[in-house]
Amino acid sequence: MTEDNASTAHRARSAPDAIAEALIGEIRSGGLAAGTPLPPERELCERFDASRPTVREALALMQMRGFLDAGGGRRPRTTRPSLQTILLAAADHIRDLMGDAEGGAHLEQMRQFIETGAAREAAMRRDRLQLARLQDALDRNEAAIGTARFAETDIAFHRALVSIVGNPVILTLHDMFVSAMLAQRPPVDDPARYDAIAHDEHRAIYEAVLGGDVIAATDVMDRHLARSYRARLKAPKSGLAPADNRSQGGIRQ
Asked: Do domains 3-80 and 86-248 have the same CATH topology?
């Protein structure tokens, strides 16, 4: 590629970023107030001397960064980024990693950091209301052993534990990908047995949190997640489990 061609290619690649930065700058300065509809694509093309695909890519970048609301079939409107919008914008990219073995392993490791840390924090700072909610989630989990509802109650127990930390970033990350990870796990040959094992581990976690035993809560959660991950790797391939087991929601946590 010649120097002129390389320069042209660079300008083409950077044009959407430049447009996005210009519009974001106006939002930050107050020139475009939050909730203001953007001008039509035609006007943006004329203003920035750019093609429609370039402008659309710039708008997609703005939306990804939380400065644009392009939903509802109406003209895109400016927004101010929030923690929630930024994390949700990344959700699809995170979910894409679940189908890849290496990416899935990295997410499992991230989950382990989140939930062992949550167990430690819960044992230190739990209050009566939080303990009551955790116990209710545990009771519902027990009642669902051997049924298709177990996976849902499994997720609810882990979420109740993470919510004790009181950190919206951690809870949002948990909601974004941990719940999806649990729901997508493959079936097992004996759901009731796996359910019982998972519930016993949940109860041990609850009792450690109830007793304020930081070391035990962290250790039990760590072993629980490690056991669950090993079980997932050993799970029978799709089609080998009995048909009535396929609806059980996958490996329990």
From this structure: no
Question: CA 72 to CA 61: how far, in whole Å?
Answer: 18
> How many angstroms separate the CA atoms of 188 and 204, rounded?
23
Q: How do residues 163-186 score in pLDDT, each as one tens digit?
A: 999 888 888 878 877 766 666 666
- C-alpha pair distances (Å), 207 with each of 120, 135, 137, 194, 214: 13, 10, 13, 20, 11
Burial class for 74, CB neighbours closer than 10 Å (0-12, 13-18, 19+)? exposed
Sorted by where each begins, the domain ranges of the chain are 3-80, 86-248
Q: Mean pLDDT, to the nearest integer, of 35-39?
A: 91
Q: Mapping DSSP to helix (H, G, I), strand (E, B) and coil, where does residue 37 land?
A: strand
Superfamily of domain 86-248: GntR ligand-binding domain-like (1.20.120.530)
Burial 219-236 (b: 16+ CB within 10 A, else e): bbbeebbeebbebbeebe
Ranges of beta strands (E only) in the chain are 68-69, 77-78
Residue with tokens 């009792």: 207
Q: What is the DSSP string of 68-83?
A: EE--TTS--EE----H
Structure confidence at residue 246 as a pLDDT band (50, 70, 90): very low
The topology (CATH level 3) of 3-80 is: Arc Repressor Mutant, subunit A (1.10.10)
The model's pLDDT over 190-209, given as tens digits with 9 standing for 90+, comes to 889 989 999 999 999 999 99
Nearest-angstrom CA–CA distance, 124 and 20 = 45
pLDDT at 149 over 80: yes
Q: Assess whether pLDDT exceeds 50 at residue 243.
A: no
